[in-house]
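lol ok so funny story. i was supposed to be doing the assay writeup but got distracted and ended up predicting the structure for this chain instead. priorities right. anyway since i did it might as well share w the group, maybe its usefull for someone
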Amino acid sequence: MEIKNVLVVDPLKGEFVGDVLWEEGIVRKVTPKGASTFDNILMPGFVDPHTHGCFGIDTMSIDDEKLERWERFLYTQGVTSFIPTTISAKKEDMIRVSNMIEEYVYKKSKTSVVGVHYEGPYININKRGAQNPSAIREATSREMEEILSPHVKLITMAPELKGFYDVLPLLKENGTVVSIGHSDANFEEIRQAFLNGVNRITHFPNALKGFHHRELGGSGAGLYFDFTLEMIVDGIHLDPNFVKLIYRLKGAERISLITDSISAAALEDGEYELGGLKVNVLEGKATLQDGTLAGSTLLFSKAVKNFKKFTDCSLKELAMVSSYNSAMNLNIQKIGRIEEGYLANFVLLDKELNVLETYLYGEKVYQR
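and the output, tada:
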């Protein structure tokens, strides 16, 4: 198949008008045309490594049918890779979800599901946010050996807690990326984690120790060291000016867009549940009864538009934050670029960045 006369956006080569040819789900040829006019924009398919659910579906209660519906819905958002994310839960529930996802991926010849993300329960209870405190606990090597599998791509942990460095070698051996989050660690504790190979921070800087000029905290450490920073760009979790500040300080190379969406995303305001806790959604803002933010109702296509609006970044940079950076940081192979040899995972957008078509392994899975 071939798509012609589009503005091809590659996170490394940049933007150019051209044609893209693919066969058997793999990009075979990218031909620049030297033209200045184009019909639409072709970007690498979006990657969301942190989503708890949407459209009435929750990671903790998914089955094959629900996960397939979740996939299909995310195609409308241009998402061609995503990682269902758990919340702090019992060991048995974590294993059940992980096994279900592993079996689902095994049965599918083509899927946008690339693994599981454990957000907790090995986090600081003082920075739990909307995580259920009854499930939060310290990590042990024995439990980690039970919950790990090759499909556990990502885990969010607090490095100041007992057990963190005990299990870190097991996580590295498994190929699981460790992300700092829900942490009250100070600057020195974050520095030690960074020096031990931890280079990602979950939904920066939400649920981290705040910045102070005499103690930089987790937020300051995230800026000081070369972390990849997840960001929820919904205009609620982060002020637009803060997003622009981080973009200026860190550059697009160190930012990964996420939704942190819950089951209420794409649905109406009302009462929902997250990890056994009641969540109220009012005007798209999800909170616990005490006002604590409880994930988001953000959709990925909106996150992309927001980041462009808040920062005035280039489309090349937009491809970095929406796809390439997550793929690189999480070691997901052959996605995130429009280049020969890469998977034909694309999103076709109009000039206002509305999703027109989504391609997975070269197959058109969504058309507006």
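The longest helix spans residues 91-107. The radius of gyration is 20 Å.
back to the writeup now i swear
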